[in-house]
């Protein structure tokens, strides 16, 4: 029974990334498809934030199955079986396509965690994006030279007051530390601090510096939301007082 007792006051987190890698199909690859209008092959995934040394995969150094039971990817409805359940690592789905769209990513935790599933949303990116936030679509030959487009977001899954048994499981699987800085020069375009948004070629890598920047960015966004909420709450209170005043005038 002690294992089902929550450890109050304890918070423990696991860094993850979610996003996609996309590669332009050659003309020969397009011709071989049953859907020749498809222009890219892509993979959407949930992975550990750290990358294995000298790997051409973004993230994925750690096996996340000790706390993740299933990842459900909800693709565009035009795909056959658009809801894809992945119950073992790697937690990813690969497809081909021609358009960008939003993918719903639902993470279900192992039953012993006692945690509710969480949902993320990722905009599938096939093209590098400009600073203005518009897709940049280069000619086929140039796109093939640039290499894969990467679009990944860093996040931290926080477990508050975990069960004793689950806490022990987490402590037994510490995440691979992120390198302080990039271990090799990689040419990629960063649209937002702390995230790898629509990179141009190369294999990007998350670092401790980027983790810190992302934490600061999330805190800034949180404070902005709090301030906006307080503003609208104050406005609502004023309107309620005005409504009450008008009611009293009507009654009199």
UniProtKB/TrEMBL annotation:
It comes from Gloeophyllum trabeum (strain ATCC 11539 / FP-39264 / Madison 617). The gene is YAF9. Belongs to the YAF9 family. The coiled-coil domain is required for assembly into the NuA4 complex. Residues 6-173 form the YEATS domain. Component of the SWR1 complex which mediates the ATP-dependent exchange of histone H2A for an H2A variant leading to transcriptional regulation of selected genes by chromatin remodeling. Component of the NuA4 histone acetyltransferase complex which is involved in transcriptional activation of selected genes principally by acetylation of nucleosomal histones H4 and H2A. The NuA4 complex is also involved in DNA repair. Yaf9 may also be required for viability in conditions in which the structural integrity of the spindle is compromised. This is Protein AF-9 homolog. The keyword Magnesium does not apply. Keywords: Activator, Chromatin regulator, Coiled coil, Cytoplasm, DNA damage, DNA repair, Nucleus, Transcription, Transcription regulation. PANTHER family: YEATS DOMAIN. GO terms for cellular component: cytoplasm; Swr1 complex. Pfam families: YEATS (PF03366). It is found in: Nucleus; Cytoplasm. Component of the SWR1 chromatin-remodeling complex and of the NuA4 histone acetyltransferase complex.
């Amino acid at each position: 029974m002690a294992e089902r007792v929550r450890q109050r006051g304890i918070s423990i987190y696991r860094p993850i990334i979610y996003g996609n890698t996309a590669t332009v199909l050659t003309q020969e690859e397009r011709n071989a498809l049953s859907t020749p209008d498809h222009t890219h092959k892509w993979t959407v995934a949930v992975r550990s934030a750290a990358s294995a040394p000298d790997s051409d995969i973004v993230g994925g150094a750690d096996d996340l199955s000790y706390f993740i039971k299933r990842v459900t990817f909800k693709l565009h409805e035009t795909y056959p079986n658009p809801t894809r359940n992945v119950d073992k690592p790697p937690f990813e789905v690969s497809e081909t396509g021609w358009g960008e769209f939003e993918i719903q990513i639902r993470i279900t935790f192992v039953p012993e965690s006692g945690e509710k599933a969480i949902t993320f949303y990722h905009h599938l990116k096939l093209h590098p994006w400009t600073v203005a936030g518009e897709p940049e679509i280069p000619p086929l030959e140039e796109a093939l030279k640039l290499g894969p487009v990467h679009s990944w977001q860093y996040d931290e899954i926080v477990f508050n007051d975990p069960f004793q048994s689950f806490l022990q499981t987490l402590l037994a699987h510490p995440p691979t530390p992120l390198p302080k800085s990039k271990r090799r020069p990689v040419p990629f375009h960063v649209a937002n601090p702390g995230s790898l948004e629509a990179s141009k070629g190369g294999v990007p890598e998350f670092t401790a510096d980027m983790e810190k920047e992302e934490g600061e960015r999330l805190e800034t966004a949180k404070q902005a939301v709090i301030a906006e909420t307080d503003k609208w709450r104050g406005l609502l209170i004023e309107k309620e007082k005005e409504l009450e005043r008008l009611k009293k005038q009507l009654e009199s």
